């Protein structure tokens, strides 16, 4: 799975397979890395993910934010002195601007990919923490709608 099939088809397969797997066993899905795909897979019973997408994208200048993906190499960030994500409290977002990180990428400085990779890993760790909290609080579907509304804005 997660190797090119349509997302709707993948979600149906995951739903069918997780329904027959023992609940006490960990359910692993390889190659799913977009936030909306992770969320739908968790809703369908998946517990564990493994994907290069967050770090590969970050190393090439695309990061995930609470408002969707951002490609830091774009000229629009040349004089943008905001953090990558205003709602993130990671080290990168607390200490560096979009303009500076863009400069690092364009200058070929290794710090640029390191900062965006740190941010992306932090973003996904926070995503999973929020999903766990929503499951425990029994409001996962409401949380999903709220998250996706903001993420797609």
Q: How are the strands of the largest sheet arranged?
A: 1-2
C-alpha geometry:
elongated
| Helical run tally | 7
Profile the largest sheet.
Answer: 2 strands, parallel
Low-confidence stretches: none
- Whole-number total of structural domains: 2
Series of secondary-structure elements, N-terminal to C-terminal: HEHEHEEHHHH
What is the share of helical residues?
40-55%
- Total strand segments: 4
Radius of gyration: 17 Å
Distance between the termini: 28 Å
How much of the residues is beta strand, in percent?
5-15%
Q: What oligomeric assembly is this protein in?
A: single chain
Provide the structure class: mainly alpha
Global mean pLDDT: 96
Enzyme class: transferase
GO biological process, one term: tRNA queuosine(34) biosynthetic process
EC number: 2.4.2.-
Protein name: tRNA-guanine transglycosylase
């Amino acid at each position: 799975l997660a190797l090119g099939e349509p997302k709707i088809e993948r979600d149906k397969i995951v739903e069918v397979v997780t329904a027959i797997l023992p609940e006490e066993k960990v359910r692993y899905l390889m190659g799913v890395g977009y936030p909306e795909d992770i969320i739908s897979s968790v809703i369908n019973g998946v517990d564990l993910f493994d994907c290069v997408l967050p770090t590969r994208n970050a190393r090439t200048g695309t990061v995930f934010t609470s408002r969707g993906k951002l490609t830091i190499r774009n000229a629009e960030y040349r004089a943008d002195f905001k953090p990558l994500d205003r709602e993130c409290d990671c080290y990168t977002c607390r200490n560096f601007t979009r303009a500076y990180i863009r400069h690092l990428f364009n200058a070929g400085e290794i710090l640029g990919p390191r900062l965006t990779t740190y941010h992306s890993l932090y973003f996904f760790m926070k995503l999973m923490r929020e999903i766990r909290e929503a499951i425990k609080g029994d409001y996962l579907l409401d949380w999903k709608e709220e998250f996706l509304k903001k993420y797609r804005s």
